[in-house]
Write a structure and sequence with these properties.
The protein has 456 residues and is α/β, with parallel strands linked by helices. It has helices at 3-7, 10-20, 30-36, 44-57, 65-68, 80-83, 87-102, 115-130, 142-152, 171-179, 196-208, 275-284, 305-316, 372-384, 397-402, 424-455, and strands at 162-164, 189-193, 216-220, 235-240, 286-296, 320-325, 339-344, 351-356, 362-364, 367-369, 392-396. The strands form two sheets. The protein has a nine-stranded mixed sheet with strand order 3-2-1-4-5-7-6-8-11. It is globular.
Length: 456
């Protein structure tokens, strides 16, 4: 059908926008753009730019407008840096990319494995692995995301809402769709991201994983200073991998100590370490029956001063359910061994479970990964809450207080001694034999030297 024929049926357009949130005219479909520029790629970049603008414009005045506003603002189809220094080169490269995509066997209506969404996530993982330190800022490895989703949804068939205050590309949130199923996240996926480019990546990620526009609410802004979902809390499940040891305004803004998210601890997180500010924010928005799992920088567990005061509040109020030591070298952009803090508001006792999962990994090329068997081992220990030598231990609040509120796993779990066992008696016998043999050789050498001296 032509665009003109489509325009004659406004009701159909409105119906599609109501269902999908946006509308694409026939001339703007991928296959038709490729076909129309087969002989002349001169204006391909302008065609693409116009198409993206019209897709976004189709949402204006509808309930989906906020979900699509600025969605393609970071997509530069005229970039001399990425596409070429002349218009001809730029359009040729765009056309080659589109030709390569055309060769992929992607049938949206047939796919049952979320091909588009998984392909997108794979590309982001590949980018993150080569982007150095910045790679870890927006992408959490899928296996870590899966572990967090398993922990927070354990024992539940569904949750009301899931939330990530530093959502990056949305990988953690989307794991709930895989663990529980999209239909079992009853009221949708909520997140906030401070970086505009990554914010757009997250929204695209949601759409490509077929999460309807009405089922996600991703906001742009600084979560600590401008939280966007105060009207949506509390949340049954909160997961996050917030930026490690990032700076924030802290007590330079004295009003923050009265913020209901931070006030209960009586102190604000240090200006140079916002980790526990994120933790207090998440705890504040956690439902009474909910579970929160946060990837934390190791210093959060043992540093003193204000962070110790916040840990003291969390422990004395019995909010810390579990501490899990992860293997090192799991994340992009850093090799450090991080930990997971699990928070709950409905603990049945004053004990905290410590799990040392530092050996639960498989090395693949230069990175360590969590295999499904490793995740199962960790989740089973989390569920059973039993002492397992060298691996897990249930610790009383009195013991944590006695250790000056230190939450490092190594404080409570003795690592297995992997050094080779040595039999001292056998070793001494071997040394005695060596000494005896050495004395014999020394005597022989002395005798030879004496004979040589006499001959001389």
């Amino acid at each position: 059908m032509s665009d003109e024929e489509i325009d004659e049926n406004k009701e159909s357009i409105a119906s599609i926008i109501k269902e999908k949130g946006f509308f694409i005219y026939p001339s703007q479909l991928f296959c038709n753009i490729l076909k129309s520029h087969a002989q002349d790629t001169t204006n391909l970049n302008e065609t693409l730019r116009t198409t993206f603008d019209k897709i976004e414009a189709s949402t204006i005045g509808t309930t989906s407008e906020s979900k699509f506003k600025g969605l393609f603002s970071d997509l530069d189809v005229n970039s001399s840096k990425n596409l070429g220094d002349t218009l001809l080169k730029r359009n040729e490269k765009l056309y080659k990319v589109m030709q390569a995509i055309e060769q992929l066997d992607l049938h949206y209506s047939d796919n049952t494995i979320d091909a588009f969404g998984d392909a997108y996530e794979y590309l982001m993982r590949m980018y993150a692995s080569s982007a150095g330190k910045s790679g870890g800022e927006f992408f959490t490895p899928q296996e870590v995301s899966h572990l967090l989703a398993r922990l927070t949804s354990y024992g539940k068939q569904s949750v009301n809402k899931v939330y990530d205050p530093a959502c990056g590309s949305g990988a953690l949130l989307l794991q709930f769709a895989k663990v529980l199923g999209k239909a079992n996240v009853k009221q949708g996926f909520f997140g906030q991201e401070i970086n505009p480019t990554i914010y757009n990546l997250c929204r695209i990620n949601m759409l490509l994983h077929n999460v309807g526009f009405e089922n996600f609410d991703i906001a742009l802004g600084d979560t600590l200073l401008e939280p966007k979902h105060a009207d949506d809390e509390p949340f049954d499940a909160i997961v996050s991998n917030p930026p490690y040891s990032t700076k924030w305004i802290g007590d330079d803004d004295p009003k923050l100590i009265n913020d209901p998210r931070f006030a209960p601890a009586g102190v604000l997180a240090p200006k140079g370490y916002a980790d526990l500010a994120f933790t207090m924010h998440m705890l504040s928005w956690l439902s009474p029956s909910g579970t929160c799992a946060i990837v934390e920088f190791p210093g959060v567990l043992y540093r003193g001063s204000k962070e110790k005061q916040i840990r003291k509040y969390l422990i004395d109020q019995n909010f810390i359910d579990t501490i899990i030591q992860l293997p090192d070298n799991l994340f992009f952009g850093t090799n450090i061994a991080t930990s997971i803090i699990v928070l709950k508001k409905n603990k049945p006792n004053m004990h905290t479970l410590f799990i040392d999962a530092s050996e639960q990994f498989t090395k693949v090329t230069k990175k360590n990964i969590l295999e499904p068997s490793h995740i199962d081992t960790i989740v089973n220990a989390y569920a059973n809450r039993q002492d397992i030598e060298y691996f897990s231990r249930l610790v009383s609040v009195e013991e944590i207080r006695a250790n000056d509120y230190n939450l490092s796993t190594s404080t409570y779990i003795t690592p297995k001694d992997t050094r080779e066992a040595i039999d001292i008696t056998t070793l001494n016998a071997q040394i005695a034999q060596i000494v005896e043999k050495q004395a014999t050789l020394r005597a022989q050498i002395d005798s030879i030297i004496k004979d040589l001296e006499s001959a001389g």
